[in-house]
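I am going through a labmate's work and have reached the protein record below. What it holds is a sequence and that sequence's fold in token form. Please read both lines and tell me whether the tokens look consistent with the sequence. Do not assume that whoever made the record got everything right. Thanks in advance; the entry in question is below.
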Amino acid sequence: MILSQLHFRGFAVGSGEPVEFWVDDGVITREPIPGADTVTDGGWIMPGLVDAHNHVGIAPGLGVTIEQARAFARQDLQAGATLIREVGSPVDTHPLDDDPAGPRFIRAGKHIARPKRYLRDYGVDLGEVTDLPAEVARQAQAGDGWVKLVGDWIDRDTGDLSPLWPDNVLREAISVAHQLGVKVTAHVFGTEALYGLIDAGIDCIEHGTGLNDELIAIMAAQRIGLVPTLIQVENFPSIADGADRFPAYQQHMRKLHADAPSTFAAAIEAGVDIYAGTDAGGFVEHGRIVDEVVALAGIGLSPGQALDAACASAREWLGAGGLGDGDRADVLVLHGDPAQDLSVLRSPDAIVCGGHLV
């Protein structure tokens, strides 16, 4: 059912303050609209959730079509994610922007990697590391304000995780991105690659299981974002189990998994900006943003802080708006306050995406 003019009255999630607004042509307004259809009168109201690390253009086996990607996006939407930061996809998912009732996307183009140093056919493989700045410029044009690097991956010659890029090349590449007004993020599991990326001025780290106290302090001071993808980190032992040819890598991945709770707790304690992302599209199924929020609450964030990592703070970070006048109407209506009880997120009374009742 699609309604063009909607009315909301209830309580703001977190504060409990009364809130009332209308939606006209997909946009929030405080100007009353006579005859608008009331979605809630007394429910708990919040902006839609953000999945800040998602790949609707990826699935096991590759070959994802736009219609398959649309179905994945709908799974995420049904879980309450009205905004998806797609950090790397082998298929251009911009056609999904034409879906009037679909999630909003902020994209990073294709992963930038090196031959045999990432999942096969997932991204762009550069034969020469010095080509990185030029490729960053190309992917900046393909995305929506972000570029995604593969910072580390297993090196078959050494049998363990190692960086893909020299520090001087990273500095030049990230400088190019910033000159173009684009932010850069990077997939990183281990520790070694983090030094060069952070020194080069990276804007965000994905996963970040190899962080240590020194790096955490720098990230906090420089406001470098961290998307820990906790429900993906849960898969590290099974990833290790499938890598019998590389015992050092197996041991490393198992240690990263074991240390992850204390690593991320230290990042929280230091004040690192943390955002919720599922890494859906590979090992993780779509529609699990609430699982990620709950997992964040399990490593030291309060329920309200975990919710914020998938909503208000994430929206501010991505420049996406919330429930202000003129903002895109992405709204969740709930029967209780998830800032007090996150389980409320699992059964929303209503999901409104772009002004459409889902």
Summary: The chain has a mean pLDDT of 96. DSSP finds eleven helices and 18 strands in the chain. Residues 173 and 358 are 41 Å apart (CA to CA).
